[in-house]
Amino acid sequence: MSKLEELIQQLCPKGVEYIKIGDLVGFEQPGKYIVRKTDYSDNFPTPVLTAGQSFILGYTNEEDGQYLASKGKPVIIFDDFTGAFKWVDFVFKVKSSAMKMLKVKNNKTTIRYIYHCMGKLNYASSEHKRLWIGFYSNFLIPVPPIEVQHEIVRILDNFTELTAELTAELTARKKQYEYYRNMLIKEYLDFPLVKLGDVCDVFTGGEPPEDTIKTDIPSHSHPYAVWGNGKEVYGYSSSYRIDKDAVVISSIGANTGSVYFHKAFFTPIIRLKVVVPKDNMLDMHYLFHALSATKIESKSSSVPNMNASDIKSILICLPSVSKQKKIAQTLDKFDAYCNDLSIGLPAEIAARQKQYEYYRDKLLTFKELKA
After folding, report:
1. Beta strands in 41-172 (DSSP E)
2. Which of 31, 232, 274, 277 could form a disulfide with 203 if both were Cys (CB 3.0 to 4.6 A apart)?
3. Alpha-carbon gap, residue 345 to 294, rounded angstroms
4. Residue 341 above 60 pLDDT?
């Protein structure tokens, strides 16, 4: 019998009480922690956070209005419109007034136990309405004796720590890829520099096809990806606009200048620019790595954006096709190891995450104690 089983048998053999999460957790509004300027720089010390997937939007040098989270005083940040949340144990500022900072109200539970329970709830909303007070706070979660909670947290944190170690290794590998990519590209800087528009056609994305289904998974009737921001699929359609492999550049918003490679038969939406070589003198994979190594910046001082002429004016180095292929073959291996979800570190991280989710859902399922 495991230690957890012994604790449950000893302390709560007949079940546990289920309590509204809002009765256990209080919140603080973000007003005084919102960043005033968005001229972020990696040279600045304080991260600006969102509870969404991007998490760290950038870094600011604003010293006032920092939220002083730490390893000893962590906090959960919660997006009041989507239900997304993140664990934070370092000093930060926030971007949005929709965020709430969550902390436990009493000694019935711990903030880390709440964090794992929120993961089990697995709630997300696409409605643009406030969630916490009227909805999310009413979710019921199991609250076993604190000794049981501590043991559950210990077990689950072992999984998250392993995932964190793998993620840190992946970050190091990506930096290694960037180093070799830049080194190989710079090796050929004595070759001609050409404007992208002279060797490539540039297409602007449009509206998604009318039959687009917003899903992450293709189907027999809707097999073709519709790309929204380059990295994440917007949905799937029965038709496509681009019939060949292409490089895609985000051209509006926070991801402006980000470069992606997409296989043939897809549709880009309006925030994307698609770059396709005009002839076989430019290898598509080399083009992807060369543009990834190029600092592509918006000329706008307000909302970051790039038009087709901006993209066409980008200069890239153009060695012989044989040298392009040699560079691409080397860098493709690094890129796949860092980004391909079917192999390497991304696959292992995904497997560990599924393992964590399985045990989290199992360990946080209790028989309800009847009054």
Report:
1. 46-49, 56-60, 75-79, 85-88, 93-94, 99-104, 140-143
2. 274
3. 25
4. no
Model pLDDT, residue 21:
97
Is the distance from CB of 268 to CB of 229 less than 8 angstroms?
no
Q: Exposed/middle/buried for 323, CB within 10 Å: 0-12, 13-18, 19+? A: middle
Matching fold, domains 16-142 and 192-318:
yes
Query: Domain coordinates of the chain in residue numbers?
Result: 16-142, 144-179+322-371, 192-318
Phi, psi angle pair for 204, to nearest 5°: -100, 135
190 dihedral zone (left: phi>0; alpha: psi -120 to 50; beta): alpha
Contact indicator for 16, 367 with CB cutoff of 8 Å: yes
**What does the pLDDT average to over 21-41?**
92
Second-level CATH architecture of 16-142: Alpha-Beta Complex (3.90)
Task: Place domain 192-318 in its CATH homologous superfamily.
Answer: DNA methylase specificity domains (3.90.220.20)
- 69's tokens: 């989270």
Q: Which of 355, 348, 356 is nearest to 169 (CA)?
A: 348
